[in-house]
Amino acid sequence: MDAAADALRQATTAFNESIVHIDAAALDAAKRAANGLVESQYDRAAWATMREALAAAVATDMAHISQSDVDALAARLNARLDRGPLSDAIASAQALREGDYTAESWKAFAEALAAAQEECGRRSTTQGDLDKAVKALTQARDGLERKQPGGGEEPGGGEDPEQPGSGGQPERPGGVKPGAGGNADTSKPGTAGTETLSKTGAQTLLLAVTACIMLAAGFSITTARSRRR
Questions:
Q1: Phi and psi torsions of 195, nearest 5°
Q2: pLDDT of 162
Q3: CB 53 within 8 Å of CB 78
Q4: What SS3 state is found at 74?
């Protein structure tokens, strides 16, 4: 009896060790998630694929399946279209302002945006088409060209700031700009005139002094002659 009992225990242990324990937690979670989905929110073809995967998962005999097959079923159930990247790209593009960009570059961008919105709204599409729409919209956005201030010219229109009407500080008569300070040319407005007036005044004063001396000398001579008589 003891020998028979030992043999039975050994056989039971060997059998239990030969059994493969399947971890079906991921598959069970995928089935619950799939059952909670709403058909109207998904692409028609993707929905049909998901329903087929769900039916296969439910019909699977867990006693006769490998762990790799269980994992593959879970992956099929979780493989749904991801519209998130395209939706994010559209939202970001809609925040741009047409007035900030050139008409030609904006036209190409607007066409790509309209195509992306149409693709994102399709019920029957593929992940590849969604990804292509994201790429096309991104390329069109990268191709946008900003308008230059002043209608394509640099501020001030490229005029020489030292020339009259350039928008910079105008020159004063005589070629001296405002604020020249100690480096200003001596040919300021009024400088030449002041020097001329100064010279003229000195000459006039000299003539007046000479005339007074001559008058005084004449007066002295006249007085001396009168006394001699």
A1: -65, -40
A2: 42
A3: no
A4: helix
Task: Please say whether the beta carbons of 68 and 24 come within 8 A.
Answer: no
User: Using an 8 Å Cβ cutoff, are 64 and 20 in contact?
Assistant: no
pTM: 0.42
Q: Please check whether residue 125 is in contact with residue 43, taking contact to mean a CB–CB distance below 8 angstroms.
A: yes
Give the residue among 14, 130, 20 at the shortest CA–CA distance from 64: 20
Which residues of the chain fall below pLDDT 50? 153-194, 197
Q: Whose CA is closest to 76, among 54, 58, 59?
A: 54
> Which whole-number Å values give the CA distances from 141 to 104, 118, 119, in the listed order?
12, 17, 17
Tell me what pLDDT residue 5 has: 73
Give the sign of the dihedral formed by CA 98, CA 102, CA 104, CA 106.
Answer: negative
Q: Name the strand (E) or helix (H) holding 86.
A: helix 84-94
- Both tokens assigned to 78: 């979780």
Give residue 138's pLDDT.
96
